[in-house]
Fold:
Amino acid sequence: MKNILLITLSILLFSCQKEDNTINLSEKLISQKEYVTMLKDINIQYEQILNESKPKNLSISEYKIALVTGKIELSLGQQNRMLNATKPLIDYSTKLAKINSIKIEDLGSLIVLGGMYSPNDNLDSKYNENSFKMNDFSTNSLSTKTTLGINTKETLKINISRQELLECALEAIGISAFWAFSGSGLSTWTIQAATKAFSAAAGKFLGPLGVSITVISFGYCIYQHGND
Structure:
């Protein structure tokens, strides 16, 4: 019964986005600074909710991974509150997809889209099929800094190495789920394929909420590294 209620809420959230034709595509997306603030605010709300039930022997990051990987269960009330807290990201993702004519078929993939791509990102070049591969994790090339989210009119720029990118992914999703995502056969990188693969790996046990926990942690980690 609990799973049915959660699935119903997830379907309702996604259906509202698909049926909402009121978005004015001529309007601009939120700014890069507003985007990072959104991720930070959602992350704070998540951690406030999770701290209600977090075991004392686990850090908040460890607890998130335990939830995402199905080792610990979360109450239905907490899940619903966290999904509701995700609505600003879902709204942003929906507009980002519409503006760029990206067809997303499920709520998990939609959440991934917004968590991985900020307003200033070049959606065609930010990531590629090699971005999340671990076969050369220890090579010197991983320490080379790249700039994410460049826009000459925007003061906030994110400089991050591929090693830091991988560390953020591992911290957010856990080693097992990350291996599932990185080894999912994305020989040709497309946004639709990548968001679906990430969603499948992160949402195996908690569905869209597991995806939300993971992608919020991942996205916010990137911008923390970029501002170090």
Notes: The first strand starts at residue 145 and ends at 148. The two ends are 45 Å apart (CA to CA).
